[in-house]
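ERR on first pass: missing label on line 2. Operator R.T. fixed the label and resubmitted. Corrected input:
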Amino acid sequence: MKSSNISEVLNDALEHGRKYISEGNIATYIPELSKVDKNFLGVSIVTTDGKEYHAGDWQQEFTMQSISKTISLIFALEHIGADVIFTKVGMEPSGDPFNSIVKLETKSAMPSNPLINAGAIAVAGLIADRYEFEEFLRFVRLVCGRDTIVVDENVYNSENGAGKLNRSIAYLLQSNGVLEADVEKALSFYFKMCSLNINTFDLANYAAILANGGKDVRSGIQLINKPVLQIVKSLMVTCGLYDGSGEFAIRVGMPAKSGVGGGILALAQNNMGICVFGPALDVHGNSTGGYQILEYLSKELDLHYFS
Amino acid sequence: MKSSNISEVLNDALEHGRKYISEGNIATYIPELSKVDKNFLGVSIVTTDGKEYHAGDWQQEFTMQSISKTISLIFALEHIGADVIFTKVGMEPSGDPFNSIVKLETKSAMPSNPLINAGAIAVAGLIADRYEFEEFLRFVRLVCGRDTIVVDENVYNSENGAGKLNRSIAYLLQSNGVLEADVEKALSFYFKMCSLNINTFDLANYAAILANGGKDVRSGIQLINKPVLQIVKSLMVTCGLYDGSGEFAIRVGMPAKSGVGGGILALAQNNMGICVFGPALDVHGNSTGGYQILEYLSKELDLHYFS
Amino acid sequence: MKSSNISEVLNDALEHGRKYISEGNIATYIPELSKVDKNFLGVSIVTTDGKEYHAGDWQQEFTMQSISKTISLIFALEHIGADVIFTKVGMEPSGDPFNSIVKLETKSAMPSNPLINAGAIAVAGLIADRYEFEEFLRFVRLVCGRDTIVVDENVYNSENGAGKLNRSIAYLLQSNGVLEADVEKALSFYFKMCSLNINTFDLANYAAILANGGKDVRSGIQLINKPVLQIVKSLMVTCGLYDGSGEFAIRVGMPAKSGVGGGILALAQNNMGICVFGPALDVHGNSTGGYQILEYLSKELDLHYFS
Amino acid sequence: MKSSNISEVLNDALEHGRKYISEGNIATYIPELSKVDKNFLGVSIVTTDGKEYHAGDWQQEFTMQSISKTISLIFALEHIGADVIFTKVGMEPSGDPFNSIVKLETKSAMPSNPLINAGAIAVAGLIADRYEFEEFLRFVRLVCGRDTIVVDENVYNSENGAGKLNRSIAYLLQSNGVLEADVEKALSFYFKMCSLNINTFDLANYAAILANGGKDVRSGIQLINKPVLQIVKSLMVTCGLYDGSGEFAIRVGMPAKSGVGGGILALAQNNMGICVFGPALDVHGNSTGGYQILEYLSKELDLHYFS
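pass 2 clean. output:
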C-alpha cells in the first residue's frame, strides 16, 4: 500500500467520522470529563515498518480511561503471570455494560474478564500490592514512546471523588475474596491509570507494537512477549468494546479497546496500529466518530482480520 | 508447511486429545445422543490448496447439532439478507449458557446472537417461512461436498420429543414478536438441521471454504459471498463456543463452532479448514478431546490468528 | 357496625374510586379483554353474618382471570394435598412481575409461589392430570353461590390464541420437571379457569367464606378446611397483588387477589368478603379504581388487619 | 387464656425447638458472632395486659442485628416521615437473599424494602444525617424498657471490619442517588444498631408495644403512633424473614423480624409480644430452634392471624 494512499484515505475517514459526532454525547458521570469539547476528532496511524500518519486533532490530549486496562493487563501478565491473573478474573465476554455488578453475585465471584471495570480493578489490585504506580507509568511511557506522559490530576481527583460505583465494585470483589489489596490502594492505582493524559499518536505507537508481535517498530526491541500479546489481543476482540464488541468485530474486525475519554485503539496484525479520538460517545461508551473512522479505514485499507 | 509435517502433527494431536476424553461426558439431554460411544475421536483437515488429512474416527458419522447454526446463518444472510436477520437477532456474546432464556426477558426481546439456541431458532423461523428444508439441505450438501448427507431420523425424533426448553424459548420469542413463523414449523426446521448426519471430513470441506474466502478449494467456485463470511466468522470468534468462547479465542485463536454431538469446526484464514469429533463434552458443551486437538494444532502449526 | 353505615361508606368509596379510573388502562395483551368499557366500576360486600351490600356495576360480568388462582389452589390443596403441591411450587413472593420467567432459570426450577402465572400453571397441571374441568367448575359454583357460572368462550379462545408467554412458561416448567401434565392440557385448564364469567357479588360470596373460616355464611356448612384457608390467605397477603403486594399490605391490609379482568377480591377476617371490579389497570395489572375503593373501605370501616 | 397454660406451652415449645438446633449453623461471616455457643435457646412473652413469661436462656444477651431494622424504621417514620422514607426505599418483598445487590442494578435504584440490608442502610443514612446515634439509642431503650442497653463494641468492631458487602451496597446506593449521607457515617450507624446487646425479655417488651397499638403495656403511654405501626407490621409480614417470609407467614402467621444474632421477634395483634433466641441459623439466616418455637406457640396458643 502506498503512503500517499493511506494519507488520503485517512483524511476521507476523518471527514466521514465527523458526520457522526452529533449522534454522540460527552461522558458526564465524571465531572471533569464533561468539560471537554464534543467536536474534537483526530486519528493517528503508525505502521509496523515505522511510518506515521495523522489527521485532525491528533495532538489534542485526552485521558486514556479504559484503554489503560490493556496496558495494566500486559504489565500484570508480564510481571505477575497469567496463572495468578486468571484465578482472579475470567476470560469471557460478559454481555453486560462495562460497569455492571450483577454477574459478581449471580454467576461468579470473579469478574468475567479483565477489560470490564470489575476485572480491571481486580488486576489493578494485584499490581498495586506489588508495584509502585511509577513503575507502571514507566512501562506506559515506554510502549507509547513518550517520556512526558503524566496523570491528569484534575481528572484523577474528579474520578476519585465521583467513583461511587467503582468503590461498590471494589468492596464486592473484596467481599468475594477476589480483591486482596486494600480497596483505596487498588482504586487509587485504577483511577490514576485511567487519568493518564495521552494523544492519538502515543497510543498509535503502542498499538503498532501490539501489531508488530511486541517489537518496537523503530528499534525492533521486543517490549512485550508474544504469549502475553496473544491473550491481550484475543480479549480485545471478544471484550474490547464492552457490550458492543460483537458488532465491532463484524463491522470493523480489529482487536480494539475503547475508553470513555473518547479514544479507541485498534490494530491490524503485522500491519499497523491506529488510535482515534472523539469524545462524543454512543450508549455503550464508544466514540461515535472514532468508531466510524475505524470502520471506514477497515473497509478502504482492507484491515478486517477476515477480509 | 510440508504435508508430511501436517500428517505427523495430526497424529500427535489425536494422541494428545485422547488423554482428555475421560474428563468429559456424553450429552444426555437428548436421549438418542446418550447412546454414542464416548471414546470416538477423529479429526480432518482440508487445506485451501485442496489437500486433505485425516486421523482417528474421521469416518464416523455424528449429528451436526449447533454447528449447523453457522450454515443456516449463511443461508439466511445469502437469501434473506443481513438487514432482515439483524432486526431479529443481535451480534453480541451473551455471557450465558447456550440454552439460556433470561436475557430475553431482562435485556432485550431479541436473542443476543444467532449462535445461541434462541438466536438460531429465530433464524430457523425466518428460513422456514420462506424455504423448504430440502433447499437448505441442498446447500448443506454443496458446502460439505457430499450428496448423501441426510437427517438422522432417530436423533430428530428424539430432539423433537425432548425439546421442551427449545419450545419454551420459541414461544417466548413469538410472544416477544421476534419469531413470526409458527413455533412447530420453526422448531421442526431447527431440529432437522441439528440432526444432519455428517463426519469430520464433510465439515472440514465446509470449513475450508470458510477459510478460502468462500470459494470451493478444488473447483474455485464462489459458494459463499465475502461480506457474509465476514459476519459469520466474526460471530464464530466471539460466540462460537458459547460461554467458553473467550477462553477458546485466547488458547486456540481460530473462528470455530461447536455442537453437542461432539463436533467442533474451526478454520485458519487462507490456510485450512479443520473438524474434530469427540462426543465427551465439558460443562459448556464443547468436546474435551476435540478442544485439546485444536489447541495442539494451533500451537504446532502456528494457526492462532494473533500468533 | 350498622348496615346503614356500610351502605353509605360503600357509595362514597365508589365515588372516590371513580376518580382513579383515568389513571389506568385496559389490559390489551388478550384481544378480547381490550374490548371492555374502561369506565365500569362496581363493588359488593357480603358479611360473615350474611348481609350483602352493592354499589355501581356490581351485576356486570367480567372474567375471573388470576383471581381463579386462589380457587384452583384451594381445590388442589383439598384434593391433592399441600405435601404434593409444595414440591412443585414455592411459598415466597417473587419480587418480579406476574408473568416473569427469569427466576425459573436463575433461582429455582420451581415457581416462586402458586399465585404468579408459572405457579398457577403448575397447579393447573396437577389438577388437570387428575380431574375434569367440570369438577373444578362445580366447586367454583359452590363457593360463589351461583349455579350458572360458565366459561366465556370468546375470552377463552382469545387467551388460548394469544397465550405465547404462558406456553413458554409451561414448556420451561416441563423442561424443569415441574410440570408433568401435557402442556396443552394444563394450559387449557388454566385458560378456562381464567375465563370464568362472574360478577362482584359472586366473588364477594366466595370471599365471605374465606373470611368466615371456610363456612358458608348463610348455611354454615364448612366448604373449605381451615388449614387450607390459612395457606391461601397468607399467600394472598404476601403475593396476592403481584409486585404490588407489599404496598397493598401496608395501605389496605387485607388478604386479596387481583385479576387483569379488573376484579380484586379481598376479605376482612371474621368480618366480611369484598369484591371490586374496574377494568382500568395500573402497571402491576391491578384495578386502579378498585384498589382505591378497597383502601377507602379499609380506612373507613377499620378493616386493616393491623389497625 | 390462663397464665398457667402459657407457661406450660412455653416450656413445651422450648423443648420442641431444642430438637432443631442441630439443623442450624452459627453465622460465621462476622468473626465475633461465630464465637457464640450454638446451643443457647430462650424465649420470652409479654402480653398486652402486662404479664410476662420466660423459658430457657432468656437472660442471655445477644446482638439485635437485623431486628434493629424495625426500630430504626419506626424512628425514621416518626421523626423524618413516610413521605421521605419511601422516596428512598420501596415496600415490596425482593424474593432475594437479605444481602443481595442485584435488583439495585437490574430493577430499581431503590432498595426493595427497608428490611433488607440495602434498605436498612438507606434508612440508617437518613437518620445518621439528622440525629446522633445516642438519640436513637434512647428510643431503643424506651421501647425495650431497659436503660442499660448498649452497643457490644467487640461485635461492632467485628462487623465494621468484616462489612465489605455492606460497604459495596452503600457505595452502590450512593452511586444510585439513594444514599445521600456519607457512606462511613451511614454504615457506622447501621453497624452500631446491629450490635446492640439485648435479651429476649427486652425484645418481647418491644414486641408487646407493637401488639398493643403502640402503647406501653404497663403505663399505657403511646410510644409509637398507629399509622407507623401499620406500615412496620405489614412489612414484617411480607419481608420480615427475608426470602423465608412467605413460608413463615403460612406456617406461623405473625408479623416478625429475624436477625443473624439468632433472635426472632414476633407478635400476635392485641395479644402478646414474643422474642426467641437461638443462634443456630437456617440457610435464610433465621434461627432454626426459634422458628420452631414460634410455630409451636402459634399452633398451641392459636396465634396465627388467619386461624
